[in-house]
Every structure is written in structure tokens, then in C-alpha cells.
Amino acid sequence: MKEKPDDFMQNFKPLYEAVLNGDANTAKATTETALAAGVDPLKLVQEYMMPAMAEVGRRFESNEYFVPELLLAARAMKGALVLIRPLLIASGAQPVARVVLGTVKGDLHDIGKNLVAAMLEGGGYEVIDLGVNVTPEQFIAAVKEKGANIVAMSALLTTTMPSMKTTVEAIKLAGIRDQVKILVGGAPVTQKYADEIGADGYSESAAGIVALAKQALN
Asked: Which residues of the chain have pLDDT under 70?
């Protein structure tokens, strides 16, 4: 008698471990095996990948993991998501929310932004990553085109922080401020600055972004 797809789920704990340990090859191979066995791709995300990224975030917050470990976990998860995402789209599965993400105009740093993208994707969000040196106009165009619920901005330099304020003001002028929650972060950014520019939330690390996004949407 052939096992049902759900019966296979217990065999895919290695996917959790692979993401947690940043083993991209195992994450991809295990995902391929699971999908070939007919396992629901959404279950792979919800029962293995999301919990793994949550644990990665916890370890980062408690100084058990550092940036290199976060980057490796993010790479492993993204490799698995490349296989899963087309199936989720085809099945009509909806993301938790859509996030337009970018490092603000004048700033070319992307490590923090990439970590935020990985954490959000691991949390079930659809991420539209605009890259670095993103203008207010680019943020606004992406929100309108993609129907985004959240705008997330990163800055690593004090000299580029004013671009966050400019973007918030531009979003207001574009008449879409009530459509999106604005989240900010980056080394020089503080809760005080986030409040001053009218952002809806601030996270001091990439690990806290999923909880912040959920809080902002609620």
C-alpha cells in the first residue's frame, strides 16, 4: 500500500536542519524529494522552513548566531523557495502580505536588506526587493504596481537616513500612505528617528522584522 503524501512529512526534518544550519545543497535536495513525493509545498514552508528561520532569528538575538550564520541560513532557504514558489503561485496560495523592500537612495549597502528579505520570505511574506539606492519614486511605483501592504526601508549610513524621511513624505504626497505600513531599520536608525519621520515600526535587527511586520499589519 502506497503511503499518503502526509505520511512522508516525518522524513523531511532534514529540511528544517538544513535551513537552520545553512546547508543549501541539502535544503534543495530535500525539497526536491518532498515535492516529487507529492508533499504539499505550503506544508514544507509552514512546518519546516518558517520554524527554522524563526529559530535562526532566536539564535541571532541570543548571540548564538551572527551575520555569517544568518546569511547561510537565508541562502539555504532561498534555494528551497525557488523550487516551491512557482507551485504556491500555481495553487493560488496567498502570501501573508506583500512587502516592497529596498536600501534608500544614496546607500549601496545590501547585507542587512538581504537578511530582512530572507526573514520575511521565511515568514510567508512576498518580497519585492528593489535593491539598493532606491528612490522614493521607485518605492511608490512598486507599491502601486504590486499592491504592496508594507514598505520596508534600510539605511546603513547616517548621511542617507534623511532619504527615509523624504520617501515617507513622497508616499504621503502620492496619496497611498493609508495603503501601506512603513517599517525602517539599519545600523544608525533608532526608534526615536522612526517616530520622528512617521514610520509605523522600527526593528534594530533583521531577526525582529517578521514580528514587527505582523504587529504593524494588526
From this structure: 1-11
